[in-house]
Amino acid sequence: MSSDLNTDHGGDFDLSPTGDTESFPTDPELSRSLVASIGTGVLSTLNSDGYPYGSLISYANDQRGNPITLISDLAEHTKNIRSERRVSLLVTHAHSAEGDPLTGARLTLVGQMQLLSKDDESSGAYLNKHPYAADYSKFRDFNYWKLEVESCRFVGGFGHMSWMEAEAYASAEQDPFCGNAEHAIEHMNDDHADANLIFVQELGGIPNASEAQMVAVDRYGMTFKASTPSGTRTSRVAFPEVAHEASQLEPFVIGLLRSLRGDT
User: Fold this and answer.
1) Environment class of 29 (CB within 10 Å of its CB; exposed 0-12, middle 13-18, buried 19+)
2) pLDDT above 80 (res 58)
3) The domain at 181-261 falls in which architecture?
4) Which residues of 167-181 are buried (b: 16+ CB within 10 A; e: fewer)?
5) pLDDT per position as a tens digit, 141-156
6) I want to staple 17 with a disulfide (CB 3.0 to 4.6 A). Which of 164, 181, 221, 234 is the partner?
């Protein structure tokens, strides 16, 4: 399935990002990273009357990004699943209370639930992510289920959305920074606002920016929201090379900043 075209919503603002726009991750990569970094979502099942029923669940993902969950046979959503295996799972990016939650990334995974055996190796991934659930796993009425993904709908924010097939999603790699990106973003915004501005002015294509906040970082680079005389713009700054390990995040950012400042 192809990406949707951006819609013209009117107005005189420019939604186009500046900087190295070729360095953005693909939507399948963003989707895999989102699923790996969150761990909870809203599972929608169909009840006996054909109405959708939403439930908050916790999950982990297997190597192909399929969510694994541990649920009780007594739960309404489990009763629904046993009658109708077709479900969807909504996963959303965490957001602050002040901001617009609809500007954040979210993903709807569509597919069918499969009952797993108690000793299925996928269950280990769930307990690694949710160790508090170890006691539940011993109860007879709790079982592991896997959502076998058939398609996905990704929304990356205002005007950014796409459908993807299961194989595109499954074959994409989750980002090595997805586990520590939030901490790095908070640190840069709280303690290194001057560095953010340098990145945007020098490499992000907005020399007249007056302020900049980091909003994302991944193996390919960093994304900022910059304040300009004409409004807020999105700016993309690429790393000199692609990162492959979480430990590369800090040296990549520091090295790029030092090169701009002329530090040795």
Assistant:
1) buried
2) yes
3) Alpha-Beta Barrel (3.20)
4) ebbbebebbbbbebb
5) 999 999 999 999 999 8
6) 234
Per-domain residue ranges for the chain?
A: 18-171, 181-261
Residue 14: both structure tokens together: 């420019």
Give me the phi and psi of 221, to 5 degrees please: 165, -160
- 61 vs 16, higher pLDDT: 61
Q: Under a CB-based contact definition with an 8 Å cutoff, are residues 146 and 139 in contact?
A: no
Are 46 and 79 a contacting pair, CB within 8 Å?
no
| Tokens representing residue 238 in the block | 């690429």
Please list the residues that pair with 217 across neighbouring strands.
Answer: 222
**Of 13, 17, 18, nearest to 230 (Cα)?**
13
102-107-111 Cα angle (round to 5): 145
Q: What is the tens place of the pLDDT at every residue in 110-119?
A: 999 999 988 8
Spatial separation of the C-alpha atoms in residues 250 and 188, rounded to whole Å = 11
All residues at 6 or more sequence positions from 7 whose CB lies less than 8 Å from its CB, including other chains: 159
CATH classification (class only), 18-171: mainly beta
